[in-house]
Every structure is written in structure tokens, then in C-alpha cells.
Automatic annotation (TrEMBL):
Gene3D superfamilies: Fumarylacetoacetase-like, C-terminal domain. Residues 66-255 form the Fumarylacetoacetase-like C-terminal domain. The keyword Cell wall biogenesis/degradation does not apply. InterPro entries: Fumarylacetoacetase-like_C, Fumarylacetoacetase_C_sf, Hydratase-Decarb/MhpD_sf. GO terms for cellular component: cytoplasm. Pfam families: FAA_hydrolase. Keywords: Lyase. Its EC number is 4.2.1.80. The keyword Lyase applies. This is 2-keto-4-pentenoate hydratase. GO terms for molecular function: 2-oxopent-4-enoate hydratase activity.
């Protein structure tokens, strides 16, 4: 671990602690591997604090999101148990810095994925069930001024996530053709389709399984995988109520709490 990577991790941890976004960290990072080393430092710190790993998120899988954020390759980050919000419950004000929401397919695994190279069949065999999910992404970096290095170091801009509660077997859903809509109090604010996620959400999962196995931290039975947004990310503000629906998977909802009066 280099001093510069430590400095990047400290800058991001300070943003989490203070609730104030920081300057980008790319000036301290030499390439994507170095950015993942910073992410690893953050993860080790969180696990040492007693937080529990529940899986991974994949980011930047759809062209719409890549265009919105100006970053053009997929990445991943960790999911922790305290990032999960029950379906329909409120996300406390300030819990996620600069929040935005997106809808995606979650896979819950019942087998490890430890091969050097995985196939879609491996991922299907390893998946217990799929769920609809809202991911509330956030950025510890001021004004979302990110490059790939910034977002990777910042845990792939992960925030919180909300899973639907009706498990669906992969044999019962066509994830490629599954349409997605997010509504804010009944108004459509994002639409998309499974095919927008690297061609198919299972392709994104194969990419993640291969990448993590190569890094020596493979996906394990019990992990939840958020496979990536199916359509544009939506800025959110206190008081917003969002519902996401994905064909064949059903719906999931969350709300954003108002700031506390001081
Ligand atoms: C910045 C985060 C992007 C994602 O999470 C995504 O594209 O799914």
C-alpha cells in the first residue's frame, strides 16, 4: 500500500465521517488497480469496524449511466449489511451523500463462483433467485466530479440498497427483455430494460465473477449481487418516494426522509 493510496482512503473516510463531499482522489491514484487498492483499504477498515459483507454491486453497466457520469467501463464495489434498507422503508436524511437512485436486478447466490472463467450456465447454476432492487448510489466526491479512478476508489459510488421481497427463479423470467420503470409519486423518471445492462444482467454477473475470482476474492454462496442499472440514474431529494418495477420480478420502493429541523 503506498502513502498516496492511504491519503486517498483518508480523504474518502473523512468525507463519510463529516458528511461533506471531498475533492476528487484521482490525483493520488495511478491507474485502476491502484483505485481498487484504495477501495480495498476502505473495505478492510469497515470490516475491522464489525460491518458485514453481504455481496457486491456492479456499476456503470449501461450506456445511459456511462454517458451521465462520463465513465465508460464497468466497475464493482462491496455491499455491507447496514447498507440494506427493507422494502418500503425510508432512507434517513444524510445517510447517502449526493444521492441518486437506479433500478436493477439483484441475484442471490447459493453456490460459490471460483472458476478462472465463468459461463452464463455457471452463474445460472449458482443463483438461488433474483429480486428487483433500488440502489441508492452516492458520491463522496464533490459534485460527482468523477473519473473511473475516483468512483472505483469510492466503493463504486455505493450508498444503500433496497431489495424486493418476492424471490423469482431465473427459469421464470426473461431478464434480457425485462422492462424497467422508476416512478416518483406516480411520475415516470427513468425507464430501461435488462438488455441495457451489458446486453444481459447475467453477462454483468459473469464479468464480476471472473474479475473477483482473478483477484482472489470470489463470489460466495449467500452473496447478493446488484448487477447494474437498467436505465438512467435519477437525482433524489428529501421527501421523494420512489417505486421501481421490473417485468417478471415485481416492484420495490423506498422514500427519502426530510432533513431534521435543528
Ligand atoms: C455510479 C454508480 C453507477 C451504478 O451503480 C450503475 O451504473 O449501476
Amino acid at each position: 500500500m503506498t502513502d498516496r493510496q492511504q491519503a486517498a482512503a483518508s480523504r474518502l473516510l473523512e468525507a463519510y465521517a463529516s458528511g461533506r463531499p471531498c475533492e476528487p482522489v484521482r490525483d493520488l491514484i495511478d491507474g485502476v488497480d491502484s483505485a481498487y487498492a484504495v477501495q480495498h483499504l476502505l473495505t478492510e477498515r469497515w470490516l475491522a469496524d464489525g460491518r458485514r459483507l453481504t455481496g457486491r454491486k456492479i456499476g456503470l453497466t449501461s450506456r445511459a449511466v456511462q454517458r451521465q457520469l462520463g465513465v465508460d467501463s464497468p466497475d464493482f464495489g462491496v455491499l455491507l449489511a447496514d447498507m440494506a434498507v427493507p422494502d418500503g422503508e425510508e432512507i434517513p436524511a444524510g445517510a447517502v451523500l449526493q444521492p441518486r437512485a437506479e433500478a436493477e436486478v439483484a441475484l442471490v447466490l447459493e453456490r460459490d463462483l471460483t472458476h478462472g472463467r465463468h459461463t452464463v450456465a455457471d452463474v445460472i447454476r449458482a443463483t438461488a433467485f433474483a429480486l428487483p432492487a433500488i440502489e441508492v448510489v452516492g458520491s463522496r466526491i464533490r459534485d460527482w466530479d468523477i473519473t473511473l479512478a475516483d468512483t472505483v476508489a469510492d466503493n463504486a459510488s455505493a450508498g444503500m440498497y433496497v431489495l424486493g421481497t418476492r424471490p423469482v427463479l431465473l427459469r421464470d423470467v426473461d431478464l434480457r427483455m425485462a422492462g424497467m420503470v422508476i416512478e416518483r409519486r406516480g411520475e415516470q423518471v427513468s425507464t430501461g430494460v435488462g438488455a441495457a445492462c451489458l446486453g444481459h444482467p447475467l453477462h454483468a454477473a459473469v464479468w464480476l465473477a471472473d474479475t473477483l475470482a482473478r483477484l482472489g476474492t470470489p463470489l460466495r454462496a449467500g452473496d447478493t449481487v446488484l448487477t447494474g442499472a437498467l436505465g438512467p440514474v435519477v437525482p433524489v431529494k428529501p421527501g421523494d418516494v420512489l417505486e421501481a418495477r421490473i417485468d417478471g420480478l415485481g416492484d420495490v420502493r423506498t422514500a427519502f426522509a426530510h432533513e431534521e429541523e435543528s
